[in-house]
Amino acid sequence: MGKTTTKDFLAGCLTSTFRTAASERSFNNELGLPLTLLNAPHAARWVVLEMGARRVGDIARLAEVACPDVGIVTSVDMAHLEYLGDLDGVARAKGELVAALPASVSRS
Length: 108
What we know:
Layout: H1 3-15, E1 20-22, H2 32-39, E2 46-48, H3 58-66, H4 81-84, H5 87-100
Parallel strand pairs: 1-2
C-alpha cells in the first residue's frame, strides 16, 4: 500500500543532498531490514528502511533493531486483514512504528 514507493521516493530525495542507504526492493522483514542496516555504508547520514507486518509485534521488533528517528505510516486499510484480522489489528500493528519514535518527534 505504498511502502516501497514511499521508501524509494524518500531515498531519492535524500540522496540528492546526503549520503543515503535504502533497503532494496521490499526488504521489509526480520531478514531484509537487518541486512540493509549491515550493508549500509558507515558514512551514510540517512538509512531509509521499509517495515512490513504479518502480525502484531512485527513492526515493534523491527523498530527495536532499526531505532528509527522518523517514521511514515502510509496507510491503515483493508490490505492486511488476512494477517491482522481487522482494521483495529492493522492500526495496532502500524501504531508500533509511531510508538517506537523518540518522544521529540511530532506525531501528526
